[in-house]
Structure to design on (117 residues):
């Protein structure tokens, strides 16, 4: 499989994505990412979840339980998938009590595990 260069990935993410900050109790990592709703398998369940894809080189330190704000909605990282292509996909869940949590669960107006969409 051909890998994209970091420069190409960054150009695409800047053009079509947005800048976000992942936050832990002790650190903050800022990166560009492409926010979307993807079909994923997580914890043995398949469904649609909000995700953000970022350059692996920018987000190597980000792990589960970090938070990220996207479009004024707060999410928690619940999964991290490094596909070996130079991009890492983070599976997100609305943070408890956030606006994303109150809209039905995924920030896109669907349920936390919308299996029919």
């Amino acid at each position: 499989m051909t890998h994209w260069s970091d420069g190409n990935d960054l150009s695409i993410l800047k053009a079509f994505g947005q800048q976000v900050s992942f936050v832990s109790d002790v650190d903050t990592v800022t990166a560009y990412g492409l926010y979307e709703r993807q079909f994923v398998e997580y914890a043995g369940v398949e469904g649609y979840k909000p995700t953000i894809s970022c350059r692996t080189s920018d987000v190597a330190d980000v792990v589960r339980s970090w938070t990220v704000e996207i479009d004024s909605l707060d999410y928690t990282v619940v999964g991290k998938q490094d596909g070996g292509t130079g991009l890492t996909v983070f599976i997100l869940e609305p943070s408890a009590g956030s606006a994303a949590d109150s809209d039905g669960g995924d920030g896109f107006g669907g349920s936390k595990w919308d299996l029919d969409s």
Notes: Helices lie at 6-16, 99-102. The longest strand covers residues 28-42. Confidence is low (pLDDT under 50) at residues 113-117. The chain has two helices and six strands.
